[in-house]
Model the fold of this input.
Amino acid sequence: MLKIRKNPFNYFEDLDLLFDNLLIDSSNLLENKKYHYKENEKEIIIEMAIPGVNKNDIKLVFSEGNLKIKYDSKNGNTKWTNSFNETIEIISDVDENKIHAKFESGVIHINIPKKNKVINEKIIDIK
Done:
C-alpha cells in the first residue's frame, strides 16, 4: 500500500515516505509468489491458479530437480493469462515416477512424493 504525503509543504516528510514505500514494496515482492508450496515428511504439494486455460495447453516437466510449469496460449484469446513459464527448484529427494497432477476449477494441483529413506542397519557381533 502506497503512503501519501499529508502536508504538501513538508519536504522532510517526503524522505520518510520514500523509505516507507520502498520497504513496503520490497516486502510485498518477497511474498508475491505465483504458486502455493507445502511440504511434509511424505510429499511436496504445489498449487497454482491458472484461470481461463485448458489443461491440455499446460506443459508440466520434472527434470534434474526442477519442476517446470509452462503455458502458452495458442490463439491468445484468453482474458486471464496469455503465457507463462515457471520453474520451481525441488531440493528434496523425490520419486520422479510417482509425480502426478490434476487440474480443476482453474487450479493445478501437483503432488510430488518423496523417496522413502531406507536406513540400513546391521548388528555387529562383539567377540
